[in-house]
Amino acid sequence: MTPLHHLRAGIIGTGFIGPVHIEALKRLGIQVTAICGSSKSAIQTAEMWGIPEAYGDYDHEAMYASPNVDVVHITSPNKVHVEQCLQALEMGKHVICEKPLGMTTAETALVVAAVKKGGKNGPVFAVNYMCRFFPAVLQMRAMVERGDLGEIIHVQGHFFQDWLLHQTDYNWRVLASEGGKLRAVGDIGTHWIDAVSFILGAKATNVFAHIETFHKERLRPKGEVKTFAKVDPKTLVPYKVDTEDFGSVLLKFGKAKHGYVNGVHANASISQVAAGWKCSLGLGIYGTKGSVQWDLQQPNEILVGRRDEPNQILQRGTPGFLEDVANFTDYPGGHPEGFSDAHKMHYRAVYEHIASGKKTPALFANAEDGHHEVKLCEAILQSSSSKTWVKV
Ligand SMILES: NC(=O)c1ccc[n+]([C@@H]2O[C@H](COP(=O)([O-])OP(=O)(O)OC[C@H]3O[C@@H](n4cnc5c(N)ncnc54)[C@H](O)[C@@H]3O)[C@@H](O)[C@H]2O)c1
Fold this sequence. Notes:
The chain is of the alpha/beta class.
């Protein structure tokens, strides 16, 4: 057993993403010792995955009291993230919290403070912006950092989905009280911004945004609905929508240590009502020597654009990808890796960081990064109503 495999995980949440965490951990050979959810689903999930301890009634505190849980994965809806994070840190548990870190900066600041209070020997804390761990994203980051693309001029992209296109499509994210005031931007737009910040090595400092709600009224079933689940049209009731379906965001990024990024502008379109797009995080980074283009729906390839030479396609698992990126990929070229592999690589990086006593590079998003994304959401909301640039 490596030190990594001595660490034991407890998962909160049994919906769409909770089992993605469980599966990734199992593939890494990490023991999942506890699961917490509704009384029925905690037991069902425990039976299905062979998890020894099941905590029903959403009793995460009972799970935290277990001596068999070292790392807590928080995969519950956004509105309970902060409370669950703070209690886990208080109990000395390491945490991987789903994004967004919380609903407001007032509450996410508490998490930043709690992590700081833990100090050098305190728990490790990560936010699940796992798009950083697609080998292609790490590759593009290395290319920017090495100066392969020259000085970066501008960035463009989108995050498009269509699962909330119809008026009858429902999920708790549509309600500001459950998911936060920004829905499309908060839920998927922050993935785009975090991935671009990671590639550039610089944070967004200013924003100008316009958000729109196409369906001002939607129809929903009376009970809870698992993400991406189909609903019975006969059980629907109308409600007013208080979150956006799509947004256009302009961002200005600060200075990167490597010197190739300084005041770069980016424009991103974010939509959950874009027919035909299932989960397309697309981006293009344009520099004085060349560009890279990538889409999460074809995650194993990067298009490298050159003005005076032929364009190239770099393929994961082949010499086009750098050696340091190879550490974050398990399968040879031609055997596609995707969404679930990026989760796996993220968790491996966090668990290795814990097992090494924080000696490995912390490439993952920390509490400050998660807090910054929520700050951006608030600035985007403010900009959309004031119609002005807002400093983050
Ligand atoms: N990183 C990613 O790629 C990714 C993808 C999808 C979702 N997410 C995030 O994961 C979280 C969950 O999203 P989902 O799509 O799985 O939602 P979901 O509705 O499918 O599942 C949420 C689960 O949490 C449970 N739950 C509700 N209240 C709870 C509480 N108080 N304590 C514990 N569990 C509770 C529900 O019963 C359900 O099992 C969200 O924060 C979302 O933004 C991240």
